[in-house]
Amino acid sequence: MATPLKIILILLVAAFQGLVAAPALAWDAIPQQVAPGVYVFVGDTGPRSVANEGMNATTGFIVTTAGVVVVDSGSSHQVATKIEAAIRRVTPQPIKFVINTGGQDHRWLGNGYFADQGIPILASGKTAADIADRGGMWAAGMEKLLGAAFAGTRLQPPTRTFKERETLTLGGETIELIFTGGGHTPGDILVWLPDRRIVFSGDLVFVDRLLGVLPVSNVKAWLASFDALAALDPQWIIPGHGAPATLAKARKETRDYLALLHAHMKKAFDAGDDIQSAIKSLDDAAFADLPTYHELRGQNANRVYLEVEAE
Q: Does 91 map to a domain?
């Protein structure tokens, strides 16, 4: 039988190496290795908070023999410094690119820190437009939440954009940036590593918590983007929220939920039901065990009804 000390050591090792992160009292920027050279920071599955520095999101980085690619720059200047420090604990390789997978705050508010070092910031043209439209709103909200911890953060848009696809080749690693039509935000992209069959999905995939439908989300586009992701047949998905997941888990907790919402609201609208009746008749109990279910289910249903109404 294992001694209490051995049990404690086993639990500590599992907490560091495992792919499911427990809620933390602060955003510690502890990278977890998914595959050789591929690392993730798994955020809390609850709302953004002072304690998690607005980083209730999953981000990461890719290490090659010629440099590092950062996937999402974080929620503030301070978080960006933590990302770089975590990378330095893994490799001395220089950071060559930063990619923004979408237009929500924790995907890009750390851009300024990296841009000040002359590092290119890549995103889809739709994300650049989204940041231009809503960046001030996201920054104001994060500053209100974080207070002094937001100091030094500035609005830095992407410095390089693409329309549908861009391929980076670095140290023998092929990294494909693919815009599939957005969904959670208008410019969401996939970061696909074809040789490894690993994809960073950004906010096109949520696992381990209920996803959030934003005022700018488009569920029909989101479903199409998920199908484009599924067609890649990834072995691992690094989601926008939650721990690295299989395609089956991602489909169950993201696509199935979105499909249920859209189909129900369309049926209710076509039948002449008003929005409150449509929400009341929605049976989404299959997702009730997911964190944030009670906080977000009503908002999500409301926004999808409005989307269907406008179609």
A: yes
